[in-house]
Amino acid sequence: MPSVEGLLQLAQQVVRAVLLVEPPTASDNAPQVQYRRCNSSLSDSTWLQGYVNVRFAKLVETLGTPDDEGPDSPACWTLQFHDGTIATVYAYKPGQFGYGVNEIPTDDYCWHVGGRGIEAVYHVARLLQVQPLLDSTRLTLHEDEPFEP
Hints:
- With 149 residues, the chain is an alpha+beta fold.
- The protein has one domain.
- It has helices spanning 4-17, 56-63, 119-128, and strands at 35-37, 47-54, 76-81, 86-90, 109-115, 133-134.
- The chain has a six-stranded antiparallel sheet with strand order 1-3-4-5-2-6.
- A hairpin with a 4-residue loop joins strand 3 (76-81) and strand 4.
- The two termini are 29 Å apart.
């Protein structure tokens, strides 16, 4: 298995070479969620909406290599969905949770989902086929409206 540093270097090279990336081809068991990878500049004015608990390998399998890294996140994906919703998936300050400052969490981890509304969390959760975890300041799921990935 490649090292985390190796994966990070590869991701940085890809980001430098390509500004707009098409999503990976869908497999037979992948959800039919229409989205595209997009330039991280579209994530301006987004903020934390919730979380998805998933492994890094599942993110890479579904979304491809990360877009970029910043001072607070060693990996980030920026997505635009069919309805125009922008979502970012990122590991915010993983050093606070026992990882190295620039280390990408590879085990089960609650990845942050940013957006301009909670739709971002729902779209990302459906795409990854996991349960959405909403930020405590956001609306919660209604009991009469169960979430179906």
